[in-house]
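task queued by scheduler; priority normal; single chain, no ligands, no partner chains; default sampling; output format set to C-alpha cells
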Amino acid sequence: MNLKLILVALTALLAHSAFSQKGYNQYIQEEGLKFGTKWGYAKDAEGNRKRALLIGIENTNKEPVTYEYTINLYYEGMLRESGAMALDCIDGLKSRIGKLNGIYFIPQKFTDEQLGSSDFNFTIENLEVIKVDACTEETAE
C-alpha cells in the first residue's frame, strides 16, 4: 500500500517537472488538457523576432482530443487585445510545446515595457475540449 502511494506521488512529481523543465508555468488543467505558459520570442509573419506568449499543452487523456480557446490580454484592467486558437487536435498522452509546434501568441498592441508591467495580465478562456476517435487532417498536429 505504501509503495503504491509512493509510486503515485513520484509519477505526479515527474509529470509536473517535465513541464517545468522547459520553463513553463502550469496555467490551467481542464478535461485532461494541461496548459502551461511562458514568455519567449518567436518570428511573426514577416520573419521579425518578437516577444511571444508560448503555450505548452499536454493531453493526459488516453484518447485524442480537439481543442480551441481564446487568449485575452489586459492592461490596466481593460481588455486590449484578444486572439483565438482555431480548432486543433492532439493525440492521447502527447504534448505540444510553444515555438516548436507553433503554439504561441505575439501581442500586437503592447510594448515590451507594458508586457513586463504589473498592470499587464492575460487569460486563456472559452476552452473547448472534445474527445475524438482520431486526429484528422482538418485538425492534425
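post-processing summary
- The beta strands are 25-30, 33-43, 49-59, 65-75, 78-90, 95-97, 104-105, 120-131.
- The first strand starts at residue 25 and ends at 30.
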